[in-house]
Amino acid sequence: MNIAEIQAYGYFAITVFMTVALYAYIYHLYKNRKDADGHDYEEYSNLVLNDDIGDTMVKPISDKKEK
Amino acid sequence: MENRPLEYDYTVAKMFMVTTIVLGIVGMSIGVFIAFELAFPGLNTILGSGLAEYTNFSRLRPLHTDAVAFGFTVSGIFATWFYVGQRVLKVSMAESKFLMFIGKLQFWLYIIGVAAAVVSLFMGYTSSKEYAEFEWPVDIAIVVVWVLWGVSIFGLIGIRREKSLYISIWYYIATFLGVAMLYLFNNMEVPTMLATSAAGESGIGSWFHSVSMYAGTNDALVQWWYGHNAVAFVFTVPIIAMIYYFLPKESGQAIYSYKLSLLSFWGLMFVYLWAGGHHLLFSTVPDWMQTMGSIFSVVLILPSWGSAINMLLTMKGEWQQVAASPLIKFMVLASTFYMFSTLEGPIQAIKSVNAIAHFTDWIVGHVHDGTLGWVGFMIIAALYHMAPRVFKREIYSKKLMATQFWVQTLGIVLYFTSMWIAGITQGMMWRAHDEFGNLAYSFIDTVDVLHPYYALRGTGGLFYLIGFFMFAYNIYKTMSARPVEEHELQNASPMGA
Asked: Do B266 and A29 touch (CB under 8 A)?
């Protein structure tokens, strides 16, 4: 097997891998709807809508410490 | 005395707003002038043949491209970062003396860098790489400015209150990392002073002039990996960061799908970096690399449209806002032009289309519907949204803003339609031959035919520039317009008649 053939197989394998990874990521996002911390992804839009310095936070940085 | 409630501090944002407008005027004015030079070549020697060195097209063209890209656009990116960054991370620049100092230092070094770039390019010192013309001392200044910006980004993230990084922050980080990598690799250069001539003489070059470290085809590959990704990480990624903040904020609508924004982010990051090969179709780079450039360019439609459609759908059920607010109009048209431009680009990257389009004015048209329609409109909209918040005053005139919108839109339409016709005419004429394979036209025949389209393009550019002056005037007058209360600044920006 010469280098060109190896490149071609590599190219094919990477394309398949990337496609599977992308669709898996889409499936994961839409099936779980929530991230690892239990927040619905769509809640993050509020980071913009409530962005005054005194507004309620979506996920305060001190969350971790409180737990 | 120290009990004042904490507020966001827009000092640095304001400074960069000024450079966005000033460098926009400089870059666009030069652009309009050189557009007319192409239509009316006499303008090349407008100040007499003695000064022709400074007024000819080739001397001014890099000044135009670098002023609009690294002046207007990069200033706009910095200005919006120092505004958006604080707000979505819920932390004020006033809370860190260090970050405030770094921000101001970044601004003043940027000014020095811009001055050095303008003077050196005007004097004719250039490394001759497109969009990377600066000689190495200027490159080093730019790298320092960029590193300082990185300190600002990660410094602000480090002291944030809000744990999650909003999607715009991801895009700003990608801009920082992307440009850092591209700029360093493409500007690897050796001062000619260190070179030795074929005859063995050394020390004959100059200390500031340099040549690329890469040679031949490799140099072309690195150059267009850089050149195309400069479009990615200066004209696309940070502008998406802006629209993901400013459109939902101004309209008061949640993003249509936050999940789609994550998906398009990763899609864009993976795909964009490999598309640059399309600049080298039919050149000496390996065939498979050209094909890869074409394929990745076509795939790029998906993540680009993912972001653009997400923005348009954010306005779902709220389209009356587009009619009512010129500010929303700017943003909706920006994302529409983004869709348009990201469809046009892949079409041009298909080999058979590229056989006609390569080196023609159609490419110039494509770049400009992206930059004028998408980048320009989005930065203008961002500054209009920021102005009432940083000055605590209403926007001076809604009517003037609406007029500006229509004047500039007309300018863009004139620009890209004339360049379509010019480009395809050019491409067809270059290829035309008789039955024996002799070329049907000489180069000057194409120049003759293109004259009216070049005049039209110059006029389109002039319309856009006039609109930009209206914008500058409107922002200037906003500084002394009616003061507004905090509650008026929640979503839709307050505007005077």
From this structure: no
Q: How far is B3 from chain A (nearest CA, A)?
A: 15
* CB spacing of A61 vs B249 below 8 angstroms: no
Cross-chain residue pair B249–A51, CB shorter than 8 Å: yes
DSSP assigned state of B276: G
Q: Would you state the pLDDT for residue B41?
A: 95
Please check whether residue B392 touches A, CB under 8 A. Answer: no
What's the pLDDT at A58? 87
For residue B70, being part of any structural domain is answered with yes
Name which of B164, B259, B270 is nearest A47 (Cβ-Cβ): B164
3-state helix, strand, coil in chain A (%, to 5): 65, 5, 30
**CB contacts, 8 Å: B168 with chain A:** 48
Angstrom CA distances, B231 to B228, B272, B370, B472, stand at 5, 10, 10, 25
Nearest to B162 by CA among A34, A39, A28: A39
Nearest to B240 by CA among B148, B323, B150, B178: B178
Closest by Cβ to B92, choosing from A26, A45, A53: A53
Structure confidence at residue A63 as a pLDDT band (50, 70, 90) = low
Q: Which of A7, A29, A48 sits opposite B166 (nearest CB)?
A: A48
* Residue B278 near residue B265, CB atoms below 8 Å: no
Domain count, chain B: 1
Cα B272–chain centre separation = 16
Helix (H) or strand (E) holding B268: helix B258-272
Query: How far is the alpha carbon of A50 from chain B, nearest alpha carbon, in Å?
Result: 9
For chain A positions 47-66, those within 8 Å of chain B (CB to CB) are 47-49, 51-55, 57-64
pLDDT in tens, A5-40: 998 899 899 989 988 998 899 999 999 889 888 889
Give domain status of residue B415, yes or no.
Answer: no
Of the candidates B53, B64, B7, the residue with the CA atom closest to the CA atom of residue B30: B64
Which residue segment(s) compose the domain that B58 sits in? 1-156
If pLDDT is split at 50, 70 and 90, which confidence band does B5 have?
confident
Beta carbons of A49 and B254 less than 8 Å apart: yes
Among B204-208, B289-293, B456-460, the range scoring the smallest mean pLDDT is B204-208
Alpha helices in B40-129 (DSSP H): 52-55, 57-66, 74-89, 97-123
Q: pLDDT of B367-415, one tens digit each?
A: 999 999 999 999 999 999 999 999 999 999 999 999 999 999 999 999 9
pLDDT in tens, B74-94: 999 999 999 999 999 999 999
Asked whether residue B432 is domain-assigned, the answer is no
Tell me: the pLDDT tens digits for B104-124? 999 999 999 999 999 999 999
Residue B292 lies in a domain: no
pLDDT at B197 over 90: no
Which residues are registered as beta bridge partners of B211?
B190
- Do B111 and B19 form a contact (C-beta atoms < 8 A)? yes
Put simply, whether B3 touches A (Cβ < 8 Å) is no
Yes or no, beta carbons of A48 and B249 under 8 Å apart: yes
Domain-wise residue ranges, chain A: 32-67
Mean of the per-residue pLDDT values for chain B?
Answer: 95
